Target: GPI-anchored wall transfer protein
Amino acid sequence: MDAAKKKAKEEHVTGHAGTTPAECQLMLVVTMLSYALWKTIANRYPSLLVPSVASTAFDFLILAVPFLVAVSTPWLGETIAFLSFLTAVFAFVPRRPKGPARKKQQLAETKATKPADRQHWPFLIAVRSTLQVVTAGMILMVDFQVFPRRYAKTETFGTSLMDLGVGMFIFTGGIVAGPRIQSSSMDRRSAFKNLNNSVRSCIPVLVLGVLRMVVTKSVNYQEHVTEYGAHWNFFLTLGLIPIFISAVQLIMPGINLAFLGGLVISVYTFVLEKMELQNYILTAPRTGLVSMNREGICSFLGYLTIYLIAAAIGVRMNTHAQSGLQKQLPNMIGELSALALAFYGITHVLTDVVEIPVSRRMANISYASWVLGACSAQVMGTALVDLLFGSHNVPILFKAVNRNQLAVFLLANVLTGVINMSIDTLSVPDIAAVLIVGTYVLVVGAFAVILDSMNITLKL
Model:
């Protein structure tokens, strides 16, 4: 990439102040309503549950297109109203399937009442896969003019949709891993085995992080240095968190995950506020390897906190699910609602009373609290959809993406790079940009569905 184009693209994603937490939450409401609409239609037409080109296109139309419309136009309110209207229409004018289709649905409903692997709880599949799909769309769309700048990652302080997406990635990983982490922390032998497994499973992610850094430098690809630093990237954070937790459990077997998360963020906040770490992160010259990557190194503690507390939430949810997922959904929803309100209340106190503004760049305590509140609300809302419309049906697209999450995320990153290197994204008209992003998301989703249809799980 030539120097002028690189500079223009870097300026395009630099210096933004974000939007309100409320608008970010409303964007998540779009994804919940899309899931609800999918449920109500699929309940009427079970043929959409059979893998095919038509069912994949249907999933894309209902689960991806509304978000792309809401994020690229001023029609957020209209999108929410339209999805709500369609959901109500299909919900209150039911058409029960007959014959073999009805028997298949009854069998699925029976299975849904039994305890399930937490990775395959329908609402968690929906939350994790929704995140993958919308993230894939945003990491490319942000490079086009059509993407509102208020949704792009903030420079230093503020809240934005992409800031929230980063934290949600950490949260969803933690909530699924929680029960496994807790069960392996009871004695040193289990903790040592878990550390070994964590290192082995995270090596591919860390290798991807190093490769991304090398490729980015070698092709002169655009970089937002204040995001993670000159060399650090999200793959490195993602890969190091499980290893760090396993190492702590080896030293302190049986430590409570929520307590550990609270301890980490408390110490980090003290150092940020009282020992001038914040000033160092924001103003220090980039003279050495550590200072060049200070954002990634320091924000690691904030992301670690999100992961640990999400893991503790996952442990609690797993306890409920032991006596039947569908039976315990109301209790889960109640507790998640309380958590969302509590974290949002804490965020309000931190930002408006204590005056610690949200900062994704530092992943400070206000950022962690905001992400935990928004994520708890998202999981709660998605679980509520399952409670209202049944948890037996899961979109084919979501099941496929959930099966190969890292491969899907990697493909999305590679295609984003290829498209950015191939065209001048900043000069593409808005309609063309939306069509390009939509086609790209469809390709990424189709890749996941094809792998799933071939019963392939890529162990990256």
The CA atoms of residues 214 and 352 lie 41 Å apart.
